[in-house]
Amino acid sequence: xxxxxxxxxxxxxxxRPGLLxxxxxxLGSSHDAEDAVQETLLRGWRxxxxxxxxxxxxxxxxxxATNVCLREIERRGRRLVPVDLSPAYDPADGIGPPLTETAWxxxxxxxxxxxxxxxxxxxxxxxxxxxxxxxxxxxxxxPLQRAVLVLRDVLAFSAIETAExxxxxxxxVTSALARARGSVRAVLPDRSxxxxxxxxxxxxxxxxxxxxxxxxxxxDVDGVVALLAEDVEFSMPPYAExxxxxxxxxxxxxxxxxAPGRRWRVEPASANGQPALVFRTWDERVGAFLGHGLTxxxxxxxxxxxxxxxxxPAYAP
Length: 317
Prior knowledge:
Blueprint: H1 5-12, H2 16-27, H3 30-46, H4 57-76, H5 132-139, H6 143-154, H7 159-166, H8 170-187, H9 193-200, H10 202-217, H11 221-225, E1 228-235, E2 242-244, H12 246-255, E3 264-271, E4 274-283, E5 288-300, E6 303-310
Helix pairs in contact: 2-3, 2-4, 3-4, 4-7, 6-8, 7-8
């Protein structure tokens, strides 16, 4: 039975948040994911008269979305993080110009997202499926493997459904999934960020975030560094430079972002299912704090192990 066009908007509304998460996992950019969802729904609307109900509406739309994303990946290539480009930098060398033409991995702000429970057959829970480490790992997979892993292990589509979505065979899906799982396991941390955060506890996480905000706003380098793990990694796309270890991060902070004369306002947030910070910096010309970027925090043994700052005012509205 053909789905009437007037029913389409009502029926797809509950599916839209999941489609956004799916497209983000595939593309590594919330901006590109939004565009992909819009294209998916437009294609779905135009093709609704051809939808014959041979699969569920959900499966059909995920098929459309996956193919939209695969075409975008083919056009743009994979998204990068600074650690993909070089070893850690020496902060004494300064920083070069931002690499604005590079396709950087971007964050997924949690504002407005509704987290549901993952399907029982899923390998990854919903928040695990958008953690920065997981999204970065997906970017290293060939497009077909990326799609198969997301469809099977995050969304829990069956091998038959996945083969139909990708217009391939069950054998091909099974082979691609095995290779993808091996590649992802080789680069993911031993424990997901969700496991670590549960172990640390909500109160301790909130206390660390509050202390980090207070230290940053008073430009207290020692106060910030004391909250970081010894092997912390600090990066700030679109700059290629990234630093490893407390000493290197302290030198960089003292020389630029927390140098005397800088003024900051920082607010707690969440992104990629992880604690985050929204940064605004004082602009003397306009006499106001203006958006600077969004930092996603990764926790581990000894404190904050990842300080990933996305320097884009769009993330600090």
